[in-house]
Structures are given as C-alpha cells and as structure tokens.
Amino acid sequence: MKLFKYLRLYGKFIGCMVKKDTVTNDEYGKSYDQIANTYENWLGVMGKHVKPLIKTELFNRDSTVIDLACGTGFISHELLSKGYDGQLIGVDISEMMIEKCYHMKNDKVQFYQEDAVKYLEDMSDKGVLVDGIFLGWALPYLNQKRLIKAAYEVLKPGGYFITISNCKGTLTGVEKTILEVMANNIEKVAKPMEAKVRLPKNKEELGKWFEKRGFNSIHIGEGEEWVCYKSPEELYKWLKETGVLAGVDKVFYDVNQVEDSLIDGFKKSHKTSKGFQVNHKFVYGIFKK
Ligand SMILES: C[S@@+](CC[C@H](N)C(=O)[O-])C[C@H]1O[C@@H](n2cnc3c(N)ncnc32)[C@H](O)[C@@H]1O
User: Fold this and answer.
1) What distance in angstroms lies between residue 182's CA and the mean position of ligand 1's atoms?
2) How far is Cα 237 from Cα 281, in angstroms, rounded to an integer?
3) Contacts of 285 (CB under 8 A, 6+ apart)
C-alpha cells in the first residue's frame, strides 16, 4: 500500500517534469515574500557563521561587489558596517525581501529585483567586470553550472567568489516527512520542486565545483548548527518562518490543508530526549579567479 502511494507520487512527479511544471524561480521568490518579516530569525541563529566570511580587506574603495540573492541584506549590511566603501550591488528575486534593503541605498549602493543567474549573465554579455561576489544561503536555488560559469566571466582576474550554503545531511528527516505527507495527500499535490535543487556533498565537493570552472580554493570549511524546540508546532514555525520550507507552499495547492499532517510528521521524525530538534549542516568557501 505504502509502495503503491509512493509509485503514484513519483509517477505524478515525472508527469510534471515532462511538462516542465515544477516550482519556478519566481515562485521561490513569492515564497520568500511571505517570510520577509520573520527571516531575521534565521539570521539570529545562522548569521554568526557568515560574519567571518565578510572579508572587507579583500576590497577597496574602487571595488565593485555583488551581494547575490541578497535577501534582507545581511551581507550588504555587514560589508558596510565593516567599512566597505566601494560600489555594492544587491540582487534578489523576492520583492519583499529586497525591499528590506532599500534603507541602505545611496550613490554607491544599489539593489535590483531580478533572477541572480540572469543578472550575472547579462553583466557578462555587457562585458561588465566586478571584484567580488557574495552568495549567502542561496546556492541550491540557482542553476549551479550556469551560476559558476557566469560568475567566473564577470569577475576580474584576482576577484573573489565567497559563499556559504546548506549541504547534504542538512535537515535530516525533513524531506522524508514532506514526501510522506505528499504521498498520503496526493490529490493535494500541485507539483514537485525543481530538480536543480542540488546541495554540495561536503566542503571538498563545493571546492571541486569551483575549481572545475577555473577558480582557486583559498579557504573552504563546513559546520553544523542544531535548533531545538519544546513542541513540533514550534519546530514547524521555525522551518516555515526562516524560509527553510520555501517552495513547499507551492508544492501543495493549499499548504494550510496539510499543515497538521506536516506537524504530525515532524512530531514523529524529530523527537529527541531534549525536544524537537533539527540540524542545519553547511559548507562555505572563498574562491579566487
Ligand atoms: C536564505 S535567503 C538568503 C538571503 C541572504 N543572502 C542572506 O545571507 O541572508 C535566500 C534568498 O535567495 C533568494 N532567491 C531564491 N532564488 C533566487 C533567484 N533565482 N534569483 C535571485 N534570488 C533568489 C530568495 O528570494 C531569498 O531572499
């Protein structure tokens, strides 16, 4: 019975993929619109892992740096508060997320609502070069092959690509729970997430992705952070409000109809002696052209 349910679900996925009906870039942007006011909860816990990567000493007042998929502007804000005084360009697909950055705008700091890869490819077509690109927590949303190729073309020789990303082994049990809820509620499933959502296995694999495209790995690393809540409802709230579940609201016709099932699933899959826990495993790297 269980096997039959999963076969039906995967059959539906294949049908959607053939029709190219998967969660789109714009829909991820719309998902982030919904959580723009609560995204700071993520930064409150995970921001400390980004700060050491914001190396303003690599740039000067003549530099141009892009904060790609800038969200609410955590990296831009850190750069500016650490004294970065060159040109800064923030790009994000979510209208509501990027709106949170507008207070930083001035002659040298601009923000654009656009697809990140398209933005770099357009820059490359125009022959515009920059000194640095930061990408925080957004690697899985982007077509990595196109991203790294375009970034290489857009960076000046000696320029830096600096990134931090979730990696394989993160959110243990979350995907399985969501799939189970999908299999049990197949009539409520609209479409799957895009197949491009691919996480690096570990820091070595992240390094290889960039080295294959001509970058030198200057510094790579990995880490893990756990969050723990007293109830599965609180754990679900964390996952939802921080954008961890971005796209899941587009997978179902009406995610509200399956919220109880999701919470029930997390109750089973994430219970530990300390409470309801989930891990955030991540990799980071500084790559030089
Ligand atoms: C987890 S947030 C990271 C925000 C920010 N970089 C940070 O470090 O806090 C992911 C961001 O990626 C953006 N995003 C997702 N797909 C995108 C795309 N195709 N182009 C540009 N931004 C995208 C989302 O809108 C969201 O703001």
Assistant:
1) 25
2) 19
3) 162, 163, 203, 206, 207, 210, 217, 218, 219, 220, 221
Would you say the CB of residue 245 lies under 6 angstroms from ligand 1?
no
Top-tier CATH class for 2-288: alpha beta
- Taking the model in full, what pTM does it have? 0.96
Q: Which of 27, 28, 112, 284 to mutate to test the pocket of ligand 1 (most atoms within 8 A of CB)?
A: 28
- Whether ligand 1 lies within 6 angstroms of the CB of 115 is answered as yes
- In the prediction, which pLDDT does 197 show? 59
What are the CB-based long-range contacts (under 8 Å, 24+) for 145-150? 146/117, 146/121, 147/116, 147/117, 147/120, 148/209, 148/210, 148/213, 148/215, 149/213, 150/117, 150/120, 150/121, 150/123, 150/124
Domain boundary assignment for the chain: 2-288
Q: What one-character DSSP code corresponds to residue 62?
A: T
Q: 10-residue block means of pLDDT along the chain (289 residues)?
A: 88 90 93 97 98 97 98 98 97 98 97 98 98 97 95 98 96 93 94 76 97 97 97 96 94 96 94 94 98
The response to whether residue 93 sits with its C-beta less than 6 Å from ligand 1 reads yes
Q: How far apart are CA 194 and CA 247, in angstroms?
A: 9
